[in-house]
Design a protein that fits this description.
Radius of gyration: 20 Å
Helix content: 25-40%
Largest sheet: 5 strands, antiparallel
CATH topology of the largest domain: Uridine Diphospho-n-acetylenolpyruvylglucosamine Reductase, domain 3
Mean pLDDT: 96
Order of helices and strands: HEEHEEEEEHHEEEEEHEHEEEHE
Number of helices: 7
Shape: globular
Structural class: alpha+beta
Distance between the termini: 23 Å
Low-confidence stretches: none
CATH architecture of the largest domain: 2-Layer Sandwich
Oligomer: single chain
Strand order of the largest sheet: 6-7-12-10-11
Bound molecules: flavin-adenine dinucleotide
Length: about 300
């Protein structure tokens, strides 16, 4: 239980200086469209506001959870205690200098890819259809169609939970498949710099249109999801394994293995508990039939809903 007095103090200290929402319904802030409330959600508009927020939360011993666009999150039904910091849209400036882009963490990957293309810079077309932020993209080392963030990122700047600055070069980020060192550290990305190769503007735009057409053809984009639920196991594809085990269309409550793409779990009016049960079911069946343990790619946050006595 988060200390209510501490939250009230934080709120009164920062009110008016940035967007603060009490009991923020996480279903509204995640693409999976489910999850209980965050005690307090803050959206800093500048890196300075972020540091101000972190220092206050640190001083008041309030636990902090970070999110971007919420496109890779499964928030449990009991919600998130303490402060959720959402870096998305409010902090989204992108600067272009020669062959280099420096973006604030809340810029969307689609905007980054489009800005690059408009400036005749390639290397980011793969990211144009990934519905997340630049910060979430480097944290996850997001990728698609043979590209991933590790190939273009040269510098990641940010702060730790006390507001102290850090900077990692691309090599120092220890990128691996859907992994970065940030997963083992409590660090928050504020800026990402990418150095990109020169390319033809029209060809880049054409390529992004084509990749997004392929995405819409294969993926269930009209239903809420968090993208691919499981990481690609060594030597195969999670979606193929799920399919081969006869799980396409399987459901628990309102959580369903997509009929269109067996790697996606889609929300048809379910709860986080339905999704967690379906994830466990898929893992168990794939383990039994294929001897492979699928590892979730989606990040699971928050607390289970309290059990109501009958
Ligand atoms: C329809 C659909 C398609 C998708 N396709 C792809 C795909 O092709 N390839 C792919 O890789 N992913 C894909 N995804 C998943 C998702 O879009 C990516 O993982 C994306 O990088 C997540 O970014 P986000 O801003 O939404 O992060 P969130 O989901 O909000 O957060 C993800 C993690 O990043 C951390 N994080 C977020 N911002 C920061 C920050 N500023 N500093 C430090 N940590 C931070 C959070 O704490 C969390 O642990 C897809 C998702 C959907 C819904």
């Amino acid at each position: 239980m988060t200390d209510l007095t501490a939250l009230n103090t934080l709120e009164s200290r920062l009110n008016g200086s940035m967007k603060l929402i009490r009991m923020a319904p996480m279903a509204k802030y995640t693409t999976l469209r489910l999850g209980g409330p965050a005690d307090l959600l803050a959206e800093p508009a500048t890196p300075e506001q972020l540091v101000q927020l972190l220092k206050a939360a640190h001083e008041l011993h309030i636990p902090v959870t970070l999110m971007g666009h919420g496109s890779n999150l499964l928030v449990k039904d009991g919600g998130i205690r303490g402060l959720v910091i959402r870096i998305c849209r409010e902090m989204r400036r992108i600067e272009v200098q020669g062959d280099t882009l420096r973006a604030e963490a809340g810029a969307m990957l689609s905007s980054l890819a489009m800005t690059a293309a408009e400036n005749s810079l390639g290397g980011l077309t793969f990211a144009s259809g990934i519905p997340g932020t630049v910060g979430g993209g480097v944290y996850m080392n997001a990728g698609a169609y043979g590209g991933e963030m590790s190939q273009v990122v040269t510098l990641v700047e940010g702060v730790d939970l006390t507001g102290e600055a850090f900077a990692y070069t691309g090599e120092e980020m220890q990128f691996a498949y859907r992994r970065s060192r940030l997963m083992d550290e409590n660090k928050i990305v504020t800026h990402v710099t990418c150095r990109l190769p020169r390319a033809d503007r029209e060809a880049l735009i054409k390529e992004m249109v084509e990749l997004n057409r392929r995405r819409a053809e294969k993926q269930p984009l009209t239903l809420p999801s968090a993208g691919s639920t499981f990481k690609r196991p060594v030597g195969g594809y999670a979606s193929a394994l799920v399919d081969e085990c006869g799980l396409r269309g399987a459901s628990i409550g309102g959580a369903q293995v997509s009929e269109k793409h067996a790697g996606f779990l889609v929300n048809k009016g379910g709860t986080a508990a339905d999704f967690l049960a379906l994830i466990a079911h898929v893992q168990q069946v794939v383990m039994e039939q294929k001897g492979i343990m699928l590892e979730p790619e989606v990040r699971i946050l928050g607390e289970d809903a309290p059990v109501t006595p009958v």
